[in-house]
Amino acid sequence: VAGSADLAAIRSTIHDAVSTVTASYAELRQAHNLIVAQLRDEIRTLQQSVERQHRATATPNPANPDVLDKRSMDQLLEKELRSQKPFLLLLAKPVFPAGQTVPEPVREHAITEFVKTLGSLAGSSPVGAWLPTAYAALLHSSFKDSALWTQQLAACHLFQLEGLPRTLRIEPSLQTVEFTSSDSPSLFFKRLSQAVDTLHCNPTHPVR
């Protein structure tokens, strides 16, 4: 009888232990599923935030529908690099006078005209957005007309501020990044990084 009682107690202990383990596993699984769901929500939110930021900084001006957005320009650059054919990337930024108050519609109009002129100078070469206020032209010929491009891209815009006539003078900042058949993509991107870093400065010179 005592043996039977001990056996029953052992079985009860094992049953309780199994029930505890099963309950703990169910709780752990529920917590795991909750964490996974939270991570998925956070990843989705992050992806949406990145996409919104991309659209805010890389969407071409509606007045210039031929201007590629940054993502398309990046894809085009990757294709050019894979082909190993020489090309030149021209980065152009309209520089506004420091300290001058310019109404936003006037600024937007000036940028629109700047991009139109850049596209006209580039001809059939693709032009794309690179930074919020800088643009890139992918050229397949040597760039020997920097003085002409600088002259053409410079422009004066008349506007009124508080009832008084004002003049907005735009000066272009140009940077060129060359890729040759003997270059590696990593070298090109190093040059490109240097060009972007100095794009906010007025001097115009190639990066080799």
Number of helices: 5
Quote the distance from N terminus to C terminus. Answer: 96 Å
For the secondary structure, the number of strands is: 6
Main β sheet profile: 6 strands, mixed
Structure description:
By secondary structure, this protein is α+β, with helices and mostly antiparallel strands. A hairpin with a 2-residue loop joins strand 2 and strand 3.
Summed up, what is this model?
This protein is of the alpha+beta class and 208 residues long.
Secondary-structure blueprint of this entry?
Blueprint: H1 2-58, H2 70-83, E1 87-95, H3 104-122, E2 127-131, E3 134-139, H4 146-153, E4 155-161, E5 164-179, H5 185-198, E6 205-207
Parallel strand pairs: 5-6
Antiparallel strand pairs: 1-3, 1-5, 2-3, 4-5
What are the key terms here?
208 residues, alpha+beta, six-stranded mixed beta sheet, 5 helices, 22% strand, disordered C terminus
